[in-house]
Amino acid sequence: MSILENITSKDAIALEEKHGAHNYHPLPVVLSRGEGVHVWDVEGKKYYDFLSAYSAVNQGHCHPKIVNAMTEQAKTLTLTSRAFYNDMLGKYEKYATETFHFDKLLPMNTGAEAVETALKICRKWAYEEKGIAENNAEIIVCENNFHGRTTTIISFSNDPVARKNFGPYTDGFIKIEYDNLSALEEVLKSNSNVAGFLVEPIQGEAGVYVPSEGYLSGAKALCEKYNVLFIADEVQTGIARTGRLLATCGNCSCSDKHCSGIPEIKPDILILGKALSGGAYPVSAVLANDNIMGVIRPGNHGSTFGGNPIAAAVGMAALEVVKDEELADNAFELGELFRAELNKFIPTTDLVNSVRGKGLLNAILINDSEDSSTAWDICMALKENGLLAKPTHGNIIRFAPPLVMTKEQLLDCVSIIIKTLQEFKN
Ligand SMILES: *Cc1c(COP(=O)(O)O)cnc(C)c1O
Fold first, then answer.
1. How far is the CA of 235 from the centre of ligand 1 (A)?
2. Which of 308, 324, 340 marks a domain boundary?
3. How many domains does the chain have?
4. How many whole angstroms separate alpha carbon 137 and alpha carbon 63?
5. Is a pLDDT exceeding 60 seen at residue 261?
6. 169 confidence band (pLDDT: 50, 70, 90)
7. Is residue 277 over pLDDT 80?
8. Same-domain pairing of 306 and 355
9. Is 233 a catalytic residue?
10. Can you give the CATH number for the domain in which 380 is found?
11. Is residue 4, in this structure, part of any structural domain at all?
12. Known catalytic residue: 274?
């Protein structure tokens, strides 16, 4: 079979089943095209994408401006490695650091690599700037976190499926309850070896857990008090997803109407990935100011592909789209509408307990046990009705469409979701 030949869904799934490692459990739909908020399967059926590749495709599928930047750069220069300079990286770094208000950017490719990078920077800062004795630095993380899949990162996961039998694990992490400031202060008060606090502004993979109002600013204030770096993993929440450029947004001059403008939740280290490329290419980054990023010197860290010219061109275009199309404001407004519409429906059904989220990062909680297949079965029914979503953990379904959606499209999606839930029989 030639790879250029058309393939049926059934055959494509069978090929992956036979020749691919079984490290995912996909919904049985085989996509071959995407545009804006829509994707099409190989049989030509059209769907609303309500996952957006885990919020990588915030700018919509195949955004022409991003695709153009990528193809033009691909025709010109793709990779030099960082052994030499390239003419795109500096421009992108200037643009991104001005956008997010940091002195420096360190380019990587995937989210997990960027998290690893942030952890390394934090530890090095602890030894060289804070004065913690070598090998004693500890980093506080939260229960039910998701930060990626490397051995170090899964060392502090508490998801047994992600963790078991991958040991021995990396030391130096302290796990505390999410959304609990006294738990954070207790550790900070009693342990002078703490170097950083790594946190997701909203826990996406865990099921879109939105912390209490004031949690992030409170955590940031505690970190400042104890000279500990506040490290925000905005791989999923960043780039307009939650209705602002960043979920920790503040101290920036973005023009987002709904920007909090609270300067004290500016992270010491910001981790971005996913939508930093609009889903076109693996692009991730760590941002920090000179007093922190300065600990990284030639040879300390790197990546063959990190900061390549295509990534730089794509990253810049992807950020420009977010600004030009005011995607943060759109996500804010459509998110309010989405939750309001679902909140009108939820009292009329036994199937859904609640809806929660911020901007266009939302989830519904299915009224069934965590190990039931109800959420999966609902996603199968949604697929039949032309909308693709995926359960996160057990009985939670995440709804995260591309941010380029119109109000009419969103209301169309709301009616698909409500109709599916109304007709759903276990
Ligand atoms: C997806 C994600 C990551 C990991 O990104 P990869 O590109 O899959 O390595 C890290 N942190 C958060 C919060 C994520 O959602």
1. 6
2. 324
3. 2
4. 43
5. no
6. very high
7. yes
8. no
9. yes
10. 3.90.1150.10
11. no
12. yes
Average pLDDT, the chain: 95
Kindly report, residue by residue over 297-306, the tens digit of the pLDDT. 999 999 999 9
Please tell me whether residues 286 and 362 are part of one structural domain.
no
Tokens matching residue 90: 């500096």
| Ligand 1 atom nearest 115 alpha carbon | 10
Q: Is 30 within the bounds of a domain?
A: yes
Please indicate, yes or no, whether residues 176 and 269 belong to a single structural domain of this protein.
yes
CA distance 321 to 276: 11
Which H or E run contains 337?
helix 327-345
Q: Whose CA is nearest to atom 11 of ligand 1?
A: 147
* Number of the ligand 1 atom closest to the C-alpha atom of 55: 15
How far away, in angstroms, is 425 Cα from ligand 1 center? 34
Residue corresponding to tokens 């030499």 = 84
Give the per-residue pLDDT at 265.
85
pLDDT, one tens digit per residue, over 75-89 is 999 999 999 999 999
- Could you tell me the distance, in angstroms and rounded to a whole number, from the CA of residue 199 to the centre of ligand 1? 12
Q: Say whether pLDDT at 262 is over 60.
A: no
Contact by Cβ (8 Å): 49, 57: yes
Known catalytic residue: 323? no
Q: Are residues 299 and 371 both part of a single domain?
A: no
Specify whether the CB–CB gap between 391 and 397 falls below 8 A.
Answer: yes
Residues 273, 187 share a domain: yes
- Whole-model pTM? 0.97
Burial of 194 (0-12, 13-18, 19+ CB in 10 A): buried
- Kindly state the tokens that stand for 263: 């300067």
d(CA 197, CA 194): 8
Question: Does residue 1 lie within any of the structural domains?
Answer: no
Domain with residue 193: its CATH number is 3.40.640.10
pLDDT attached to residue 425 = 81
Pocket perturbation via mutation, ligand 1, pick of 146, 149, 151 by most ligand atoms within 8 A of CB? 146
Which amino acids bring their CB within 6 angstroms of ligand 1? Answer: 54, 110-112, 115, 146-148, 200, 204-205, 233, 235-236, 273-274
Identify whether residues 288 and 365 lie together within a single domain. no
Tokens linked to 410: 């969103």
Percent of all residues in the chain with a pLDDT value above 70, rounded to a whole number: 95
- Residue 346's domain spans which residues? 9-59+327-425
| Nearest Cα residue to 111 out of 205, 33, 230, 18 | 205
346 plus 278 within the same structural domain: no
Of 299, 324, 349, which residue constitutes the final position of a domain?
324
Q: Are residues 19 and 93 both part of a single domain?
A: no
